[in-house]
């Protein structure tokens, strides 16, 4: 898929993977619609892009996903159409399952899963009418295997994978593609904004994230997956890469193996 001149709507574009996607896609000549809550940070993202004046900002709080139809209408009006929706917005979580109140689970499901579903449904009539469209849904390695201290996050990201797989089958007759991206540890602020047991930003240092894949490298891999329109792509190295493949190849023995690896890593 040639991304030049494609209209690409990116959620979570104010930082991390979303911001870097905007920068690298602008270098490929894409026309961007940048979405997040904080308009000033979206403007920072836009100014980092090539041909910044041509890109649009659509600021909204995706937690209020019942407004998705309105946002989709506004997005389409900006360029007359949308070619690609990148559902990247989300938040992570840190905390033991027994200590995590249901409010945190609800917050994760609302932003990481339900807002993605709502936005996907809202733009769907436009894609079907054009008999063309492309969803790029950012899940996680935690959406393919259980992640300790991240049960709420892992559950929401598993839901993203299941929804995307089902969506792919339903929309195939309309020439609409769906790619699921499963990042591992990537150097972004995700650990800082992760929700703790009090449903507040954890503001924590995570050495796995700090020593993870550079965000520029991760985004290059994501863009290659978009160009190839692959169904599912792992963007990871180290233990997340190993865990992803062990879970697939050895589903019954994987939990014991993973527990041993985590214990060995802590020693």
From TrEMBL:
Q: Where are the transmembrane segments?
A: none
Q: Which GO terms describe its molecular function?
A: oxidoreductase activity
> What superkingdom does the record give?
Bacteria
What species is given as this protein's source? Umboniibacter marinipuniceus
InterPro entries for this protein: NAD(P)-bd_dom_sf, Sc_DH/Rdtase_CS, SDR_fam
A Pfam family that this protein carries is adh_short
Naming one, the record's GO cellular component terms include:
membrane
Protein name, entry field:
Short-subunit dehydrogenase
Query: Taxonomy-wise, where does this protein's organism fall, top ranks first?
Result: Bacteria, Pseudomonadati, Pseudomonadota, Gammaproteobacteria, Cellvibrionales
Q: Which family does it belong to?
A: Belongs to the short-chain dehydrogenases/reductases (SDR) family.
Q: Which UniProt keywords apply?
A: Oxidoreductase
């Amino acid at each position: 898929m040639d991304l030049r001149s494609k209209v690409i709507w990116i959620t979570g574009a104010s930082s991390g993977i979303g911001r870097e996607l905007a920068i690298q896609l602008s270098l490929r000549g894409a026309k961007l619609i940048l979405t997040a809550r904080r308009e000033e940070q979206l403007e920072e993202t836009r100014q980092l892009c090539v041909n910044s004046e041509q890109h649009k900002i659509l600021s909204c709080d995706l937690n209020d996903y019942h407004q998705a139809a309105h946002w989709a209408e506004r997005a389409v009006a900006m360029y007359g159409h949308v070619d690609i929706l990148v559902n990247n917005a989300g938040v992570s979580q840190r905390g033991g399952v027994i200590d995590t109140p249901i409010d945190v689970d609800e917050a994760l499901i609302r932003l990481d899963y339900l807002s993605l579903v709502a936005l996907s449904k809202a733009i769907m009539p436009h894609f079907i009418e054009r008999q063309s469209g492309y969803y790029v849904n950012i899940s996680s390695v935690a959406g393919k295997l259980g992640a300790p201290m991240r049960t709420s996050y892992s559950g929401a990201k598993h839901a993203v994978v299941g929804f995307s797989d089902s969506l792919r089958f339903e929309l195939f007759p309309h020439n609409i593609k769906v790619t699921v991206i499963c990042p591992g540890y990537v150097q972004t602020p995700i650990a800082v904004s992760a929700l703790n047991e009090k449903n507040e930003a954890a503001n924590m240092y995570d050495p796995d994230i700090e020593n993870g894949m550079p965000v520029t490298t991760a985004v290059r891999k994501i863009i290659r997956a978009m160009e190839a329109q692959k169904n599912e792509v792992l963007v990871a190295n180290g233990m997340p890469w190993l865990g992803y493949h062990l879970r697939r190849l050895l589903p019954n023995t994987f939990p014991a193996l993973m527990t041993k690896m985590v214990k060995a890593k802590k020693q």
